[in-house]
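Write out this protein's structure.
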Amino acid sequence: MMQDKKTASELGKSVAQCTINTDTLLIASSDFTHYEPNAEAHRKDNELIKTILSLDVSAFYSVLERLNVSACGYGAIASVMTAVKILGATKGVLLKYATSGDVKGDTRSVVGYSSIIFQ
């Protein structure tokens, strides 16, 4: 439950130290916006995704707070962002973003999802 920036940063640094010089795949799993209209979820999530792609943890937390993004696993995302940056990644690449509304057709109340790889 401790998903604050300081905890995520400390965890990310520890993960990086434990996995350096290994063939380790790091995965963070989280939904993005929960139960908002599709257009609003896209707006909020796309702004959050931009910070992930740039590996900017401070901006990531700022967007979470400013837009009140209801991503449930934001600490895991921030931890992996920190770790991969230490391990040499310089950017994220968005593979796919969609909401439950994009898939099911009901866009009144959706949940957002994305897949991102770090390079």
